[in-house]
Design brief:
The structure holds 2 protein chains of 2 kinds.
Chain A lengths: L1 H25 L2 E9 L9 E6 L5 E5 L5 E7 L2 E8 L6 E7 L8 E3 L14 H4 L3 H35 L10 H25 L12 H31 L11 H20 L3
Parallel strand pairs in A: 1-7
Antiparallel strand pairs in A: 1-4, 2-3, 2-5, 5-6
Helix pairs in contact in A: 3-4, 3-6, 4-5, 5-6
Chain B lengths: L1 H21 L4 E14 L4 E6 L3 E7 L2 E9 L8 H10 L7 E9 L7 E10 L2 E15 L2 E8 L12 E2 L2 E2 L6 E9 L1
The chains are: A alpha+beta, B alpha+beta.
């Protein structure tokens, strides 16, 4: 009986220790403070950034109209607090976030140094443009999809070209030819979806195209029409083969056009991947 | 009597002028600059260069405050698509300027090496870089400063740009070459 009671006691103590250890691991702290000027008046809307000196992780908040700021959910440790506001010298201090409610009040000195307007930049150069940023964000999102889909398209494209060498033959039908048609159709579908994300990505006014991207865009004038022409010629060749005829006329160019198209596509991919 | 007053007045004016000159606040202006960021990617090593920085230093009581600013979109990496992508990830339309502020004693101009504390605002973030080593060389009245700011993409909470799904390295050191002249 005594042994059982002792066992229950040990288990309870062990659970209590585990719980306390878990709680200790999850302990977080808050840091708050006020940003004032040298006279003690609050500096409204100051930017306050916090950097964990152990992990290097940083966070930023904006002080309110009374100069008050607050960070929550901080792991205990040493932090670097930096405060800045227009017209004031930035200030940095180190604070130990360990106690129940640590604070870091900072006093900023009015800047006697130059300001952006002293440097002669125009308002248009220094003004934030949210619309332009949204356009850039949309452009990048679309071009990232363009990039990924472009890479995916290379797989069926290569397979189509490889199966193309065995798709001719003398028979009116063959499994390789059917496979070639399926792969070709898949390639065309993926290619035009890829192209859509580049063609309809927002244009940024005042940007002159220069560098490797120019080569990439120029090559699109070869593989783009090629991707339209190849399936048309392929369909003509397929029909002629199905009738037991030799591939003749324009349809006989299907293979050559496909190879030029594939080569231009590969070169376009390399132009933005490899520095030369 | 009138002549003595005139002499005294002229003397006072000279005295005031001398005092004003003796206590005058000096200024420095950024004459020429080349700022170069370096990006490392598994497939590329890229340098983006800007010559568009402007700067001013104001000295008072032996202490100088410097401000250098450069438009984010002025950096040229040799590829317009990459530059637009950099402009997007660094939120360059929302925060169009990179500003660097530092505070130095006026005597620093006489040193051959300066260790400056830099406050950099970029991509909507303020980051403090301590003890950035700058070499100073004198060419006549001009001072040429060279050095490297050990910037990291993560410092400014910038999502590392990717090419072919591979991200760039976190380090984007910025090499600076600046020529300052007294104004």
């Amino acid at each position: 009986m005594k042994t059982k009671a002792a066992q229950v006691l040990w288990v309870t103590v062990w659970f209590a220790l585990c719980l306390s250890a878990a709680k200790a691991q999850n302990t977080t702290a808050d840091l708050s403070g006020t940003i004032n000027d040298a006279s003690g008046a609050p500096v409204p809307n100051a930017k306050v950034s916090l950097k964990n000196l152990t992990t290097g992780q940083s966070n930023e908040v904006q002080a309110d109209a009374r100069g008050k700021y607050h960070f929550s959910g901080l792991a205990p440790g040493q932090y670097e607090v930096s405060a800045s506001a227009e017209g004031f010298n930035p200030k940095t201090t180190t604070v130990s976030v360990t106690g129940p409610a640590p604070t870091a009040h900072m006093s900023l000195e009015r800047s006697t140094g130059p300001t952006l307007s002293d440097l002669g930049f125009s308002a248009a150069e220094t003004q934030s443009n949210a619309e332009e940023q949204a356009r850039l964000d949309k452009r990048t999102r679309m071009l990232k999809i363009h990039q990924k889909m472009g890479l995916i398209t290379t797989v069926p494209l290569a397979a189509t070209i490889i199966t193309g060498f065995g798709a001719g033959g003398k028979q009116t039908s063959s499994s390789t030819r059917d496979l070639h048609v399926v792969l070709g159709s898949t390639t065309a579908g993926l290619y035009f979806t890829t192209a859509y994300f580049a063609i309809f990505a927002p244009r940024i006014h005042g940007t002159e195209t220069r560098g490797p991207i120019r080569v990439h865009k120029t090559l699109a004038w070869i593989h783009g029409p090629g991707m339209i022409l190849t399936p048309i010629l392929g369909a003509m060749a397929f029909e002629q083969k199905s009738k037991g005829e030799h591939v003749h006329g324009l349809a006989s160019l299907h293979g050559q056009v496909a190879i030029v198209t594939g080569a231009a596509y590969g070169a376009a991919l390399l132009s933005v991947s490899v520095k030369f | 009597m009138k002549s003595a007053m005139k002499t005294l007045n002229v003397g006072m004016v000279f005295l005031l002028a001398w005092a004003a000159l003796a206590w005058a606040d000096s200024q420095w202006v950024l004459d020429q600059s080349t700022l170069t960021y370096h990006v490392s990617h598994p497939l590329h090593q890229v340098d983006g260069v800007s010559h568009a920085a402007r700067g001013k230093g104001m000295c008072h009581d032996g202490q100088c405050d410097f401000l250098i600013a450069v438009p984010v979109k002025s950096f040229d990496s040799g590829d317009s698509n990459r530059d637009l992508h950099m402009l997007q990830v660094t939120r360059g339309a929302q925060y169009p300027m990179v500003t660097v502020r530092t505070h130095l004693p006026e005597t620093a101009a006489q040193e051959s090496t300066i260790h400056a504390d830099l406050d950099i605002e970029f991509a909507g973030q303020s980051v403090h870089y301590k003890d950035v080593r700058l070499e100073v060389s004198t060419q006549g009245k001009e001072k040429k400063l060279t050095g490297t700011i050990p910037a990291k993409v993560g410092d400014f909470k910038i999502e590392p740009p990717t090419l072919l799904t591979m991200p760039i390295k976190n380090d984007i050191p910025v090499k600076i070459e600046m020529t300052w002249r007294p104004q």
